[in-house]
Design goal:
single chain; 323 residues; alpha/beta; Quinone Oxidoreductase, Chain A, domain 1; Rossmann fold; 9 helices; 16 strands; globular; binds NADP nicotinamide-adenine-dinucleotide phosphate
């Protein structure tokens, strides 16, 4: 089968669309014939060699949608031909094997491209807002990089929780698109101090929940924007990891949570369960809308990496596999 492989860390030319053996599903696994796979910021770091724990060689891709091709021993609930989607390492391939516990049946209403846009972004946002921050109606939520894959999912989740939502971006056009999904307050952090704006917009109360993903470049403003007993959920560090902050955040009782959906002990028993029971029906009813920015043929993965670096996308860049 064809798959995108990295044999040495490096630039775009370190990625090769190459022939590798079709994997056989182990016990507990399902082999999926991939129809579409989503592109993630983290893959640019995996390719460059700056992603924690990544070893070479490896197959690129972190999520996909497709049909069940083969079922390993002990798997129940999935049959050949079932449309499915989920997180899966090596998903920029024609076939991928996935732990069945990480797979969902695809909502009938969604195309494969739309379903491939869900797993990493939406599960991260759901884990942060639903499991960690336990967002509730009336909360004021501040989402950094609201146009990102995770951010655009967090926006829809926070709105359905009944929250007032503010978001940041580096470009006005991304903030305008976020308004179409219900963003209440939009801040271009390249032009203005978003903490000052948010405090004005909330009559000095500040944010109850802060979704931190940029890190070094904007952490100071995010801390300043938080209200008393505010919960910060740190899930990314696109703008640098070395953050310095004053312990006087204790005066405002600010809680700082950090998270990874790959290692959190709460992810499988809580986030996966509530996502299946509460979020999936909302995709089927059209309330939640996967945000697909552009669909590219799988051969154009290098272009997808360039687009992540250009930072103009809104939501998810999706790759189509096969016809
Ligand atoms: N903790 C977890 O379990 C988990 C799971 C999934 C993803 N993540 C992390 O979440 C973050 C977002 O992932 P994603 O796939 O949603 O990203 P994405 O769609 O590629 O969006 C990333 C956005 O971050 C903003 N950004 C700010 N400074 C940046 C910089 N120096 N370089 C690049 N982008 C910068 C940009 O938006 P603006 O220009 O508008 O600011 C950019 O478009 C990543 O750090 C990723 O590793 C964590």
């Amino acid at each position: 089968m064809k798959a995108w492989q990295v044999r040495e860390f490096g630039d775009l030319d370190s990625m090769h669309y190459t022939d590798v053996p079709i994997p056989a599903p182990s016990a507990g696994e399902v082999r999926v014939k991939v129809r579409a796979s989503g592109m993630n910021f983290a893959e640019t770091r995996m390719r460059a060699g700056t992603y924690s724990g990544q070893e070479i060689p490896f197959l690129l891709g972190m999520e996909m949608a497709g049909t069940v091709d083969a079922v390993g021993a002990g798997v129940a609930g999935f049959e050949h031909g079932d449309p499915v989607f989920g997180r899966a390492r090596g998903a920029h391939s024609e076939y991928v094997c996935v732990d069945a516990q990480h797979l969902f049946h695809k909502p009938a209403k969604l195309t494969f491209e739309q379903a491939a846009a869900i797993p990493v972004g939406w599960l991260t946002a759901w884990h942060a807002l639903r499991t960690v921050a336990q967002g509730q109606s009336g909360n004021r939520v501040l989402i950094e990089a609201v146009a990102s894959s995770v951010g655009s999912a967090a926006l829809q989740i926070a709105k359905i929780q009944g929250c007032w939502v503010a978001g940041t971006a580096s470009r006005d056009d991304k903030l305008e698109r976020a308004a179409e999904y219900g963003l209440d307050a939009a801040y271009n952090y390249k032009r203005e101090n978003f903490a000052e704006r948010l405090l004005r917009d909330t009559d000095g109360a500040g944010a109850d929940i802060g979704m931190m993903t940029i890190g070094e470049e904007t952490a100071g403003q995010l801390f300043d924007a938080m209200g008393n007993c505010g919960r910060i959920v740190m899930y990314g560090s696109t703008g640098g990891r070395q953050v310095c902050f004053s312990l006087n955040i204790g005066v405002r009782n600010i809680e700082l949570h950090s998270m990874s959906i790959s290692t959190s002990p709460r992810f499988m028993p809580e986030t996966m369960q509530t996502f299946a029971s509460e979020a999936l029906p909302l995709f089927d009813s059209g309330v939640f809308r996967p945000v697909v920015d552009v669909v590219l043929p799988i051969r154009e993965l290098r272009r997808a990496h360039e687009m992540i670096d250009e930072r103009t996308h809104f939501g998810k860049i999706v790759l189509m596999v096969g016809e």
